[in-house]
Every structure is written in structure tokens, then in C-alpha cells.
Amino acid sequence: MNETRSTSKSLAKGWRMRKKTRVFIGHFIAHIVLIMGSIVFFFPFFWLLTSSLKLERQMFLYPPKLIPNPIVWNNYVRMVTYLPFFSFLRNTVYVTVLCVIGSVLSSSLVAYPFARLRWSGRNVLFIVLLSTMMLPPQVTLIPQYLIFKYLGWLDTLKPLWVWSFFGVPFYIFLLRQFYMTIPYELEDAAKIDGCSYFGIYWRILLPLIKPALATVAIFSFMGAWNNFIGPLVYINSVNKMTLALGLNLFRNQFGGEWALLMAAATSMTLPVVILFFFCQRYFIQGITLTGLKG
User: Fold this and answer.
1) Are 178 and 209 in contact (CB under 8 A)?
2) Closest to 268 measured CA to CA, from 135, 76, 120
3) Nearest to 234 by CA among 169, 141, 164
4) Which of the pair, 217 or 5, is modelled with greater confidence?
5) Closest of 221, 206, 218, 219 to residue 111, by C-alpha
6) Which residue in 96, 61, 141 sits closest to 243, CA to CA?
7) pLDDT in tens, 84-94
8) The predicted structure's pLDDT at residue 14
9) In angstroms, how far is CA 141 from the centroid of its own chain?
10) Is the N-terminal amide bond of 211 cis, ω within 30° of 0?
11) How many C-beta atoms surround the C-beta of residue 210 within 10 A?
């Protein structure tokens, strides 16, 4: 009997050791694949950053020189000198902040009745809202241009941010999905305490959907910061250009100055990378809880 028990324990111990070994090997392989994938995706940004610190004659060396020697910080100084960079940056920050505020407030407010209130025609209007997401922006570009021309907003920054205060279909859909995960008991308790519909939205629901709001804010920030078509269509004056359009202007005027062009591109890309680095937890949480996986 004792020998049978000892044999069973030995077999169980060996099975557990083999299982731990398989799990360890699986995790090790997964980490190696993820590290290699991270290197592949990070390399273009690394090349952009190092190229912005090289001498002009080092840009097209073969074999390529990954680490600049010497490090030329003066490329950034020359880039700011040749280009009204701070004017472009001020315009971009102004448009981006307003787009983020407008998208978060308007989309969360529109998504609230679609998710929490019962009214006639709600599903039909929501389908109409979703159908607008299927229209490519090129289809609505000319009508929007004519509207802004009639309002006298051409060559101003208003066409770049006013639309965000009227709701964005994708953000409305995302927030509606998040609203629907909140228990109705919280809303019922607030109604018993005499809270209005707007009070429920402002005091109860908004604090509970912070991950989704952070996701909307990040999406809106990246869209407004990198927007090129909008400024290209509506902006004519150099002092009203954003970074995306100003970088294109810089490329046309100083196309041969590759080090300066890389410095300008790095200055535009770095804020987006930093933002995502610090907010990736909220971004991933918001995407996961709203069911937008894949």
C-alpha cells in the first residue's frame, strides 16, 4: 500500500513538474515573440529620432549608422529658426484641446439617451447614426466646405473644432456600449432621491465611464493632432496653419534638409507617443469594456 502511494505521489509530482515546464516554455516563447514584435514596431520611430540628431552627410550612409556621432542637437534649433514652429504648435494645441473637450462632452451627452432612456424611434435613429459611419469623409467634404464658406469661416480655425461639439458617431457608439454595462439600479436609486435626468448623467454615469471617456479623449487627441486634410482645405494663411500642414510646407521648402525634416517630424510625433504611453491603461480598459476587440 505504501509503495502504491509513493508511486502515485511520484507520478503526480512528475506531472506537475512537466506542466510547470510546459507553462514556462510557453510564456518564454510568448515573451520572445512580443519583444521581437516590439522591436520591429519601435524601429521606425527609433530611426526617426536618431536621424533627427545626425549630420546631413550621415543620412544616406551605407551601411546605415544607427547611433549618430556626433549628436547634433542644433538640428532642432535650426528647425525652429527656419519654421514658425511655435505658431504651428499653438494652433495645433488650441484645436486639439477644443476637439477633445467637444467630443467628450457632446458624444457622452448624445449617447446617454440612446443607452438609458426609452423613447419612440430610438433604435431607428441609432441605426441612422451608425449609417453615417459608413460614409467616407470625402463624400461630405464639399457640403461641409460650402457650409463653412457660407458662415464665413474659411481661413479660420473654427472648421477644425466646431464640429466636435455636435457629437461624433463612432464616439457616441462607443460610449453607448459602455453606458449599457452600468446597472439600472443606480439610476433608479437616483430617481428616488429626486435626481433629474441630467443630474443622473452628470453625477452618476459620467464618473462611472471614465475609462471610455479617456478612450474617446485619446482618439480625439490623435485625430485632431494629426489632422492634415482639414487644415489643407480650410487654411490659407501661414500663421493659422497647424503642425501637420506646417510640416508639409516645411517639406516643400526644405526638402533637401533631411535632418531638419526628421527633427520637425519627431517634434510632432513625440507628444502622441508620450500621451499613449501614460494613458494606455485607460485606453485598453475602455476598448475592452465596450466590446471593441480585435
Assistant:
1) yes
2) 76
3) 141
4) 217
5) 206
6) 96
7) 888 898 999 99
8) 64
9) 23
10) no
11) 13
- Answer whether residue 220 shows pLDDT above 70: yes
Q: Residue 157 has which C-alpha cell? A: 480655425
Q: Contact 212/174 with Cβ under 8 angstroms? A: yes
- Model pLDDT for residues 149-159, shown as the tens digit of each residue: 999 999 999 99
Q: Kindly provide the b/e burial profile for residues 229-245, where b requires at least 16 CB atoms within 10 angstroms of the residue's own CB.
A: ebbebbbeeeebbbbbb
Give CA 257 to chain center in angstroms: 30
- Write down the pLDDT at residue 289: 55
User: Cα(16)–Cα(10) distance, rounded to whole angstroms?
Assistant: 10
* Alpha carbons 36 and 44: distance in angstroms, whole number: 14
User: Cis ω on the peptide bond leading into residue 143 (within 30° of 0)?
Assistant: no
Grid cell for residue 278: 501614460
HEC sequence for the chain: CHHHHHHHHHHHHHHHHHHHHHHHHHHHHHHHHHHHHHHHHHHHHHHHHHHCCCCHHHCCCCCCCCCCCCCCCHHHHHHHHHCCHHHHHHHHHHHHHHHHHHHHHHHHHHHHHHHHCCCCCHHHHHHHHHHHCCCCHHHHHHHHHHHHHHHCCCCCCHHHCHHHHHCCHHHHHHHHHHHCCCCHHHHHHHHHCCCCHHHHHHHHHHHHCHHHHHHHHHHHHHHHHCCCHHHHHHCCCHHHCCHHHHHHHHHHHCCCCHHHHHHHHHHHHHHHHHHHHHHHHHHHHHHHHCCCCC
Q: Which residues contact 102 (CB under 8 A, 6 or more apart)?
A: 161, 162, 163, 164, 165
268-271 CB contacts, 8 Å cutoff, 24+ apart: 268/225, 268/243, 268/244, 269/45, 269/48, 271/225
